[in-house]
Amino acid sequence: MKQWTFAKIVTLNTSVEPQIYFPAKGMTLSLKVIATNKIVALSTFVRRDKLIKECSICNELKLLDEFYSRQKFNSKGIAYTYYQPYCILCTIKKTKKWAEDNYERHLKNVRAGDERNKDRRRVQFKENTRRKRSRGYYENWYKNNPDKQKSYRKNKKIHEITDEEWENCKKHFNFECAYCGLPKDKHLIEVKKVFKLYDFSKEHVNPNGTNDLSNCIPSCRLCNSEKHNKTLTEWYNEKNEKFSQVRIHKILKWISDDFKQFIATRDDTFVKK
Length: 273
Fold this sequence. Notes:
This protein is α+β, with helices and mostly antiparallel strands. The protein folds into 3 domains: about 100 residues, no CATH class; about 35 residues, no CATH class; about 100 residues, no CATH class. It is about 40% helix and about 20% strand. The chain is built from 10 helices and 11 strands. The strands form 5 sheets. It has a 3-stranded antiparallel beta sheet with strand order 1-2-3. It has a two-stranded antiparallel ribbon with strand order 4-5. The longest helix is centred in the middle third of the chain and has 17 residues. It is elongated and about 75 Å long. The N and C termini lie far apart (about 80 Å).
């Protein structure tokens, strides 16, 4: 690679394709040939009248595509493209080394970025999930991975409640998602571009709690997915656009006392409050 490193631009006329002379090889090649054969690695910024640039770290001549760039404006307000002094490969190595040498600062910056972009990532997650479901991604995965699905179900926390308990639970919450209030008859899931009506998920209010009715509320697929393994107060609070003071009061009242009206004993008779 180094035998191609030292070169000089022979022509810079904008009407003629630039020619690069390589002394070590004793030949002149067009920039198009160089780019096609990747003789010169890609990298960063060069003066406006040149098409290649020398990386200030590895000192290799590289095409402008090998450098990170962004738009800037000069003192007269005219836009131009600024190329960084380091090629992409050297920039990656430099950034990685800095992160390793300054781990705490790097971690702080990452967390700050996560906080700034959490709303955008939430929207992207919803859209990606919707897109995968519409293409039948999950349905095909279940068909092609029966063993993994069996293992998942074995390890997953599953509610141990009767059908009657579940119906009474949904009825108590007016057949609506306990979190967002979505009615059961509008709980449509898109599968292969067709919307189908699905039942609510049996939501664990406390992700590490029991599997009986005292820890179960009806939840739409979206809320169930968003909450995942977070605690109730960690996810369902005033920062959540779905939050409702009326609904949180009803949830807390249910898990503390109201469920007792409907939970069955071992002989399948219901406890009277």
